[in-house]
Design brief:
alpha+beta; Ubiquitin-like (UB roll); Rossmann fold; 6-stranded mixed β-sheet; 14 helices
């Protein structure tokens, strides 16, 4: 027989709940707004801010289970639900408490919303309108607290702090580095770091997201843009193998910041500082902007079509073609590039490009079970490429058993007649073996040198050696999917349009394939979803890719993104 779920009534709405859930958790899950500052689902409950207090009535078993009020207002973040309870968050007593808490918090809070970076996404600002008083009864001078540099990326405006302690709990419970502490008492309490120990762990900047007010600020974003001008695009970490879910926040074609997007099975609520700040290359002055070809050995600018046709002619004429696909590209792009090159040379060598690694995988908290294994740990990946597995799977579907690693082909580059090389790494890259194999004097000296077609985003020594250069697009300028270290495929959407002169590698591949068919270029537009459906319909090994869909675009949509196991 079906089991009846226990029920609690909150502001007149009957809500079912699981045993152990708090009133606040059930309210939020049912679209009922209860104000809170100190509560966060990823941290311990301290019930210190007191603004979530509500009036609770519960059945009294000593009085025939008649509803009776609990004598005092109860903190909903800490109070577990009971069957048959009735909760009022908007009763006169609850409203009076909310107004009192807001008045207390604003006594020493500076009225500097017009210059505060948090304005527009500040809980104190929002709750002041909703629950606060229209005038202040406080006439004395406000206590002034100093600004402090807490670490490489975080500033503290101490006089804005409401002492919710989220940041302190994060460094103690998640990273277990404990750089932050609370010193002082009463109105003179403030957040601080210990002498000689700055806030400098690899997850440190998550405290900026945790801060409900404008006390902890991002040095990189400080005074850069008003948040109400920013547009948000849901995306996937494009620099590591973690597959962290992120928001790309941008305006007028420029990415201003990256923030974590909740996914309890992968990154939970956090991202590393590496993922957050590795965006400089997107708008770097070293971005490639024009196609280049060789004329009498000298590099000259070329139109996109001219460069593409020259690359196609060279690949067609070459004896032995190799395609090296960067693990920074989307799975759909790898598939399209592989199909395009195999259409020119069915025996072409396909390989996955260099996969950067740094250090070892780490879990936070250090002894926790990773989220992907059903635990609460956040994993920092040593592998610094988002899609090595997706690229290999896409190429293997086209040429089963023939896909090589970079190490397999690195020593044989000089033996190929033509090489299609993709980059898209966030920093300039050029393996020494590749530089030696592509030196322009090798052919004249009788040594093997391939005709080098480079699809990349940043200037560097490889671009100077290439016979044809076609600027590519970064991951925020296109759509597609990545497969993370656990084999989970996740789709992402384009955030901004490509830089002038840049073309998504998937589009380059489709145009190259069009030339092989004798068709006009540009007729078929690259779109990740369409390519995923093609991949799924033609290859059993990629069938699950057809189930991938782009994530929701609304920022208030939380929860896990659509993922599949590849």
């Amino acid at each position: 027989m079906p089991t009846t779920m226990p029920t609690i009534t909150i502001d007149g709405k009957a809500c079912e709940f699981e045993p152990g859930q708090t009133i606040l958790q059930v309210a939020l899950a049912n679209g009922i707004n209860i104000p809170y500052y100190c509560y966060h689902p990823g941290l311990s409950v301290v019930a210190s801010c007191r603004i979530c207090l509500a009036e609770v009535w519960a059945p009294n078993p000593r009085n025939d289970n008649k509803l009776e009020p609990i004598p005092k207002l109860a903190p909903t973040c800490q109070t577990t639900c009971g069957d048959g309870q009735v909760v009022y968050t908007d009763s006169p007593k609850a409203i009076a408490n909310q107004k009192s808490v807001m008045e207390y918090l604003l006594i020493n809070h500076p009225l500097d919303c017009p210059v505060c970076d948090q304005a527009g996404e500040c809980l104190l600002q929002d709750y002041s309108y909703q629950y606060g008083r229209s005038v202040s009864r406080f006439e004395e001078d406000k206590i002034k607290q100093p600004k402090k540099d807490l670490g490489p990326n975080v500033l503290l405006y101490a006089d804005r702090c409401i002492m919710c302690s989220r940041c302190v709990r994060f460094t103690r419970e998640v990273t277990e580095t404990a750089e932050l502490t609370i010193e002082g008492r009463g109105a003179h309490e403030q957040i601080d770091v210990f002498p000689g120990k700055p806030l400098d762990n690899e997850l440190a900047s998550n405290v900026i997201d945790l801060c409900p007010v404008g006390a902890l600020l991002d040095k990189d974003f400080l005074f850069a843009q008003r948040v109400w001008y920013l547009k948000e695009a849901p995306s996937i970490d494009g620099v590591t193998a973690s597959g962290d879910n992120i928001w790309i926040e941008h305006n007028d074609g420029k990415v201003y910041r990256v923030k974590p997007r909740e996914n309890l099975k992968i990154n939970r609520w956090w991202i590393t500082d590496e993922v957050r700040y590795t965006i400089e290359h997107i708008h770097s002055p070293d971005r490639l902007r024009t196609c280049v070809r060789r004329q009498f050995g000298a590099p000259v600018e070329a139109t996109y079509e001219r460069a593409l046709r020259e690359a196609h002619e060279a690949l067609t004429a070459a004896k032995g073609v190799a395609l090296v696909v960067s693990p920074m590209l989307a799975s759909e792009e790898a598939y399209a590039l592989g199909a395009a090159v195999l259409a020119i040379d069915a025996d072409a060598t396909l390989a996955v490009g260099p996969v950067p690694t740094r250090g070892e995988d780490r879990v936070y908290p250090p002894n926790a079970t990773p989220a992907h294994a059903g635990g609460e740990g956040f994993v920092v990946r040593a592998e610094k490429a988002p899609n090595a597995r997706g690229v290999r799977a896409a190429l293997e579907a086209l040429a089963p058993g023939r896909v090589r690693s970079w190490e397999d082909v690195e020593g044989r580059i000089g033996g190929f007649g033509a090489l299609v090389l993709t980059g898209n790494y966030p920093t300039q890259w050029a393996p020494e073996s590749l530089l030696r194999a592509t030196e322009r004097g090798r052919a004249e000296a009788g040594a093997g040198r391939p005709f080098l077609v480079l699809l990349d985003t940043l200037r560097g020594p490889l671009a100077e050696r290439a016979d044809v250069v076609i600027p590519g697009a970064t991951w925020v300028e296109k759509n597609g999917s990545f497969v993370n270290a656990e084999g989970v495929a996740q789709a992402f959407e384009r955030a901004i349009i490509p830089l002038d002169g840049a073309t998504p590698e998937g589009q380059i591949a489709l145009d190259l394939r069009a030339l092989s068919r004798g068709e006009r270029i540009g007729v078929e537009a690259y779109e990740g979803g369409a390519l995923r459906r093609e991949m799924a319909s033609e290859h059993d090994s990629l069938r699950s890719m057809g189930e991938l869909r782009a994530p929701a675009k609304a920022k208030d949509t939380k929860g896990d993104m659509a993922v599949v196991e590849l």
